[in-house]
Amino acid sequence: MKLFEGERILVLGGSRGLGAALVNLLKSENTDVISISRKSQEAADFSKPQNWEQILNRIRELNPSRIFYCAAGGPYGSFGQFQWKDHSWAFRTTFEFPAFLLHSLVQKPVENLKQVLVIGSSVAESKADPGAASYSAAKHAVRGLVVSLQKEGIPFDLRLLSPGYMSTDLLPMDSAPRREGKARDPSKIASLMIQSISDPALRLQNQSFD
Fold first, then answer.
1. Which of 25, 165, 188, 193 could disulfide-link 177, Cβ–Cβ 3.0 to 4.6 Å?
2. Bridge-based pairing state of the strands 8-12 and 66-69
């Protein structure tokens, strides 16, 4: 029997990067994997608050056993060169919607839900990240929310999984992490994350994957 066989898992933000890698890996586990993102069959835009109740209702209809929240992003470059709407998009997608989702699930749990895994950032959580200020700020907020909720006795297992730099379209080709060889393959990070969930010896609440 495979690890998640027979389960229904939602990957929110599963159309590219780490989210897409997780979807592909979970499909090999004979799992009912559903990707929800702007570009997936189950289309949703997490950056628009007017859509949030509709997305939440759909999640409740699907009644998953696990949810991975992978959606994130933000402009790359000096903070002042972008318009405020660009930074607002980063805050809403990376922090505000997952905060809304967790608040809703704590207030009214989904029947089959046993675990929510939120993707953090080991870089943003540990040091300055010039060129990614709004993304970094949102990831700081994500960590603060998750580690605080973990102390509140919420009705499902909540974990923060924090990768380092990855080779995705969020990281510009001319960025320092790519030039310095620090950007890792998202499929390898996805495999490590699944292993951390399944291996009893690695079962920690929060983990970094640098």
1. 165
2. parallel
Domain of 153 in residue numbering reads as 8-209
Give pTM, 2 decimals.
Answer: 0.91
The answer to whether residue 1 sits within a structural domain is no
CATH code at 60?
A: 3.40.50.720
Of the candidates 54, 70, 74, 73, the residue with the CA atom closest to the CA atom of residue 62: 54
Give the pLDDT confidence of 92-151 residue by residue, as tens digits.
999 999 999 999 999 999 999 999 999 999 988 888 989 999 999 999 999 999 999 999
In a domain, 186, yes or no: yes
- Residues facing residue 68 across a β-bridge: 11, 117
What would the pLDDT profile of 142-178 be if each residue is shown by its tens digit? 999 999 999 998 999 999 999 877 776 666 667 666 6
Does some domain include residue 3? no
